[in-house]
């Protein structure tokens, strides 16, 4: 029993390193809405007792009695629905979502007005076509995506599993499984719902699961059935009992429940439950009882509904659309009032006026050419490879640096024989230090030899790694026949650190190749060593170490410990001067390893006396089965044996970063982007990765918030604000309005600045601040109290004052909650990038999924997908910049090109006694936006580039143009509208004055206006194009040619009132001179404004463009003298 208890405790706490995200990215929120806030378990360690957190309303599960389970309680079935629409709700719901865009409402109103005969501009069907086309295309896209979700749901719900029915296991569809039923899962099958384990194929109740579909991690995790039920299942007995568990909640790290079985009540924890979406591995079968099904499973509750995302530019465009709608209403009101006054003044003359005969008024129409406004639409684990490599070791005060393993390095025949005779082959190659290998195989005696032996024994034994042994097909020649075939061994574990250490121990001759519930077997240079595991104390954030109590074959008891140096050195024995010397040397080695970005651990051990063992066993058994303060009692018990340790050495592991991660993070910082890390990893792991990728630096002041209660969190936040002088958010906003904050990456160019002073390449060095930069490190336990209480503002104030924020041990929805905190309290855009964090990616304004070994859940839910984190640098600094510049300019340009057309017609109405007549044909009004001016807009929106990708990557601060809204802002909008007003006046009055004394008819002047406005808006666009290619030339100049061609065709049709007008106009030089004069006069103010602004107030982008041009011109200038001399 002590062995069973000790193994149970070993598995009890080692399954928290998960970052859950389910492959189904969107789920219905119906189940979540039914859960009151009081029923949602916080994401923290809950030390449960018989009185559950929901004792007032626990969920009762009668094992193998689904009818009784579901009679009293209305539990949901196991059918899931992740789709957004049904056949009934698709049309209204989809239209409701689409009409969130103000522009859609605007065009809907215009189209509705056009259906009224007195207000119709042109054909009713034609006016509906643009809006209906866009709505239909979007609806078809949304419908197809939702059909795929329906298909995925159908396939998922129709999968089958074995369910106990009428005394035997029979296949049953997943969607019909109910709470209380007993389900059997075989190896490599997927878990259909959340189940409490009753038994497994292993007599001790152990099971191994893979959670890749949940958290993206491929490492195996251990779960176990209680011995009380596992033995009954294994013996074939029927299991009946009652489980009292908490109500459904999103907390994937905790499960609080009790089970009544055979008259006994015992607790259940997270280690006793397997969640939907996991896969069974290395275990023949498991049997469990369903406690949560369908939408109530933890995986589905953690699948947030995908929100509708809108870019800032779209919100700004909505604002400007409202302004233009107001202007349009004013213009219509002016025309209506003016026409009413004119009619009242000339009512006696109306019968004689051809345009105002009463018959015409009855059948008249109002010409509102603003319907021609075109619609424009735009859319706007992660850091590391998770591969640990054992790099260096300090053994008993001596440093060993790993180098490539070669046969030549084995100088001693005994060493070579020992290495060759090994029958174990690791799947991954491990480089070893030849000096250390020589040392381990020498026949030495004394403390140094014992320390090296225990050092590697600790690496092989003090862990929860699972060895997986298989026959190696490529067994090498020269192996000793006594060993038989060479076996390949692979290690699976929740922690990549542990895997790396165990693999390193195997490479040095200490191979862990068997693990059961109560013992482990280690091959020590060919000799099998069986060690009984009496108990294991898992790593936790308080102790920051891990220990295992081992009984050796000679009945000696040792405790083997490994942990962080910050806590290990304080519990070492200080008996002799030699111990102190070894300690000092090891500390210097650790400093050296850490400075290289390696992850370090200290290894120690000591013997236990019989009295110490008896005391520890008694306390350990009580603590591991305690229902109150279990974690605290286990820490107190560990302190009994984790003391007076003998230092053995230290290890250094490299967590290999993805290529280019430090450079990408530094570039993002220089671009003015604040980088926050939200991870489910342990705090120490997260900090280590932060140091490796240069996210955290040595000069940063770390603010660590680890609270276990609301009051403690409040005190920690208050102390941090007081100590570091953190201002409230509103105060900081006021200060930021007065001056730009250089820490945000914004920079202004002084009047006398030179391009060489402004554009310095990204060197990775920043000017030291007066105060050291701050880094906030906070755990998920603290976030539970902060996000659910009134401490959000305190956290927000501190977080926004820090250069780096690192949140560790956070659940998936906590990540989404942090993103929502920033979105709700600031106007900043948020970008989330991850390999499996679906909820966070969906919550952010821009979601980026990493496509890798973790699966494609994040990719399916993201806006953009990429293979590695380093590509984010190019996505943001290059494509993000290009997209912002293009979209910002084209929004203004589309407002301009339609407004100048409408205002030109408005001036005509004012000069024709508010007659609402039109000088343009209906076809000209339609073709203006559809054919004449649309193609250049599309081509420029796709191909135009203000800067090359090399320049944008070299100078990350150029990305700050988007932060400062340089391409699109309210000031630019009004300047554009003033320019539009001027151009419309020029367009209207120059032809009017030119042909004032002539007999030209209204259709001829309308033809002139049509071609003039098309040439004008294309020349306006040509002035702003930065990158001319063949397609750009073809689009801009080709659209003018196409306009002439269309007008020739239209004017050749006899039934049209403008028949043959273009032929008469084109013969006159006045026609061509008038067009030329319109272009020059209309664009001259804009040209002068651009020249003056670029000379006296150049932007960063303008300076960078000039630098690019100079760089291109310099080789040409240098080549000319060479050509002349030759």
From TrEMBL:
SUPFAM superfamilies, per the entry: Calcium ATPase, transduction domain A, Calcium ATPase, transmembrane domain M, HAD-like, Metal cation-transporting ATPase, ATP-binding domain N
Enzyme class at the top of the EC tree: translocase
Region (Disordered): 724-747
Primary location class: membrane
P-type ATPase N-terminal domain location: 61-126
Keywords: ATP-binding, Magnesium, Membrane, Metal-binding, Nucleotide-binding, Translocase, Transmembrane, Transmembrane helix
Topology versus the membrane: Multi-pass membrane protein
Enzyme Commission number: 7.6.2.1
Regions crossing the membrane: 102-120, 126-144, 322-343, 450-469, 899-920, 926-947, 968-990, 1002-1021, 1028-1050, 1070-1089
Localization: Membrane
Gene3D superfamilies: Calcium-transporting ATPase, cytoplasmic domain N, Calcium-transporting ATPase, cytoplasmic transduction domain A, HAD superfamily/HAD-like
Start and end residues of each P-type ATPase C-terminal domain: 859-1099
Recorded catalytic activity of this chain's protein: ATP + H2O + phospholipidSide 1 = ADP + phosphate + phospholipidSide 2
Coiled coil: none
InterPro entries referenced in this protein's UniProt entry, alphabetically: ATPase_P-typ_cyto_dom_N (IPR023299), ATPase_P-typ_TM_dom_sf (IPR023298), ATPase_P-typ_transduc_dom_A_sf (IPR008250), HAD-like_sf (IPR036412), HAD_sf (IPR023214), P-type_ATPase_IV (IPR006539), P-type_ATPase_N (IPR032631), P_typ_ATPase (IPR001757)
Family the entry assigns: Belongs to the cation transport ATPase (P-type) (TC 3.A.3) family. Type IV subfamily.
Protein name as it appears in the record: Phospholipid-transporting ATPase
Species this chain originates from: Hibiscus sabdariffa (roselle)
């Amino acid at each position: 029993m002590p062995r069973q208890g000790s193994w149970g405790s070993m598995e009890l706490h080692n399954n928290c390193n998960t970052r859950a995200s389910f492959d189904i990215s969107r789920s219905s929120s119906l189940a979540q809405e039914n859960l009151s806030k009081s029923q949602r378990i916080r994401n923290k360690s809950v030390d449960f007792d018989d009185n559950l957190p929901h004792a007032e309303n626990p969920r009762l599960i009668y094992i193998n009695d689904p009818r009784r389970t579901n009679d009293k309680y209305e539990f949901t079935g196991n059918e899931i629905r992740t789709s957004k629409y049904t056949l009934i709700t698709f049309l209204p719901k989809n239209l409701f979502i689409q009409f969130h865009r103000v522009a859609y409402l605007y065009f809907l109103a215009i189209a509705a007005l056009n259906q009224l005969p007195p207000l119709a501009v042109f054909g009713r069907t034609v006016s509906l076509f643009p809006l209906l086309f866009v709505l239909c295309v979007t609806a078809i896209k949304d419908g197809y995506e939702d059909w795929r979700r329906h298909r995925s749901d159908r396939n998922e719900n129709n999968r089958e599993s074995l369910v106990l029915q009428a005394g035997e296991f029979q296949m049953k569809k997943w969607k019909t499984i109910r709470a209380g039923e007993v389900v059997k899962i075989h190896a490599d099958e997927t878990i259909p719902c959340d189940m409490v384990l009753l038994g497994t194929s292993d007599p001790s109740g152990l099971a191994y699961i893979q959670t890749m579909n949940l958290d993206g991690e491929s490492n195996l995790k251990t779960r176990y059935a209680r011995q009380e039920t596992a033995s009954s299942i294994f013996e074939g007995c029927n299991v009946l009992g009652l489980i009292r568990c908490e109500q459904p909640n999103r907390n994937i790290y905790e499960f609080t429940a009790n089970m009544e079985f055979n008259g006994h009540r015992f607790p259940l924890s997270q280690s006793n439950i397997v969640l939907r979406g996991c896969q069974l591995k290395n275990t023949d079968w498991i049997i469990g009882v369903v406690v949560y099904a369908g939408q109530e499973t933890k995986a589905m509750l953690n699948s947030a509904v995908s929100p509708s995302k809108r870019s800032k530019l779209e919100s700004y465009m909505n604002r400007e659309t409202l302004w233009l709608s107001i202007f349009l209403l004013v213009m219509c009101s002016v025309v209506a009032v003016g026409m009413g006054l004119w009619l009242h003044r000339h009512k006696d003359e109306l019968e004689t006026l051809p345009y105002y005969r009463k018959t015409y008024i009855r059948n008249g129409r109002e010409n509102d050419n603003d319907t021609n406004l075109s619609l424009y639409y735009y859319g706007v684990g992660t850091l590391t490879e998770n591969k640990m490599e054992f790099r260096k070791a300090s053994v008993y005060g001596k440093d060993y640096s790993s180098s490539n393993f070669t046969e030549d390095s084995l100088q001693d025949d005994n060493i070579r024989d020992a290495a060759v005779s090994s029958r174990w082959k690791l799947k991954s190659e491990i480089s070893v230090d030849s000096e250390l290998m020589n040392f381990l195989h020498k026949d030495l005696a004394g403390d140094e030899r014992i320390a090296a032996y225990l050092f590697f024994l600790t690496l092989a034994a003090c862990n929860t790694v699972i060895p997986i042994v298989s026959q190696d097909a490529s067994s090498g020649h020269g192996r000793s026949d006594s060993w038989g075939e060479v076996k390949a061994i692979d290690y699976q574990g929740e922690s990549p650190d542990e895997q790396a250490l165990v693999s390193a121990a195997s490479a040095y001759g200490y191979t862990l190749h068997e693990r059961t519930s109560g013992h482990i077997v280690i091959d020590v240079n060919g000799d099998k060593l069986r060690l009984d595991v009496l108990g294991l104390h898992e790593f936790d954030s308080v102790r920051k170490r891990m220990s295992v109590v081992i009984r050796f074959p000679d009945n000696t008891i040792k405790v083997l410990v490994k942990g962080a140096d910050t806590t290990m050195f304080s519990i070492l024995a200080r008996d002799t001067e030699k111990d102190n010397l070894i300690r000092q040397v090891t500390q210097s080695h650790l400093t050296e390893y850490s400075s290289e970005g390696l992850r370090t651990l200290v290894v120690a051990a000591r013997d236990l006396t019989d009295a110490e063992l008896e005391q520890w066993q008694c306390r350990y058994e009580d603590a591991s089965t305690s229902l109150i303060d279990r974690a605290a009692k286990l820490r107190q018990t560990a302190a009994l044996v984790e003391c007076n340790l003998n230092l053995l050495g230290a290890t250094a592991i490299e967590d290999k970063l993805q290529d280019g991660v430090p450079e990408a993070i530094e570039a993002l910082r220089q671009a003015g982007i604040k980088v926050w890390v939200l991870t489910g990893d342990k705090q120490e792991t997260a900090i280590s990765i932060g140091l490796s990728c240069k996210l955290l630096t040595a000069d940063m002041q770390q603010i660590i918030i680890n609270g276990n209660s609301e009051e403690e969190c409040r005190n920690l936040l208050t102390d941090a604000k007081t100590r570091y002088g953190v201002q409230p958010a509103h105060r900081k906003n006021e200060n930021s309005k007065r001056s730009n904050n250089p820490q945000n990456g914004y920079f202004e160019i002084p009047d006398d600045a030179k391009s060489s002073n402004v554009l310095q390449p990204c060197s990775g060095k920043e000017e030291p601040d007066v105060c050291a930069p701050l880094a906030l490190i906070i755990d998920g336990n603290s976030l539970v109290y902060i996000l659910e209480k009134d401490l959000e503002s305190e956290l927000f104030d501190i977080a926004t004052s820090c250069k780096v924020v690192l949140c560790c041990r956070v659940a998936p929805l906590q990540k989404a909650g942090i993103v929502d905190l920033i979105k709700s309290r600031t106007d900043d855009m948020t970008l989330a990038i991850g390999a499996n964090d679906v909820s966070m990616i969906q919550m952010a304004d821009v979601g980026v999924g990493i496509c890798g070994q973790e699966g494609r859940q994040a990719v399916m839910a993201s806006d953009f997908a990429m293979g590695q984190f380093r590509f984010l640098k190019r996505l943001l600094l290059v494509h993000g910049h290009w997209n912002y510049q293009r979209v910002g300019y084209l929004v203004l340009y589309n407002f301009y090109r339609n407004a100048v057309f409408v205002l030109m017609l408005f001036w005509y109405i004012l000069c024709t006694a508010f007659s609402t007549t039109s000088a343009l044909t209906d076809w000209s009004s339609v073709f203006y936006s559809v054919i004449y001016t649309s193609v250049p807009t599309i081509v420029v929106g796709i191909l135009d580039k203000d800067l090359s990708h090399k320049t944008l990557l070299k100078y990350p601060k150029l990305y700050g143009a988007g932060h400062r809204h340089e391409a699109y802002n309210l000031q630019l909008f009004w300047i554009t509208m003033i320019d539009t007003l001027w151009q419309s006046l020029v367009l209207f009055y120059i032809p009017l004055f030119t042909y004032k004394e002539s007999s030209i008819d209204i259709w001829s002047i309308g033809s002139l206006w049509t071609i003039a406005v098309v040439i004008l808006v294309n020349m306006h666009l040509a002035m702003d194009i930065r990158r001319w290619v063949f397609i750009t030339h073809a689009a801009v100049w080709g659209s003018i040619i196409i306009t002439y061609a269309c007008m020739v065709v239209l004017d050749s049709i006899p039934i049209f009132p403008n028949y043959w007008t273009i032929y008469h106009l084109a013969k006159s030089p006045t026609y061509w001179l008038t067009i030329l004069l319109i272009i020059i006069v209309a664009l001259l103010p804009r040209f002068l404004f651009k020249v003056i602004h670029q000379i006296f107030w150049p932007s960063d982008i303008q300076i960078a463009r000039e630098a690019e041009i100079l760089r291109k011109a310099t080789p040409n200038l240098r080549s000319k003298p060479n050509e002349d001399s030759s």
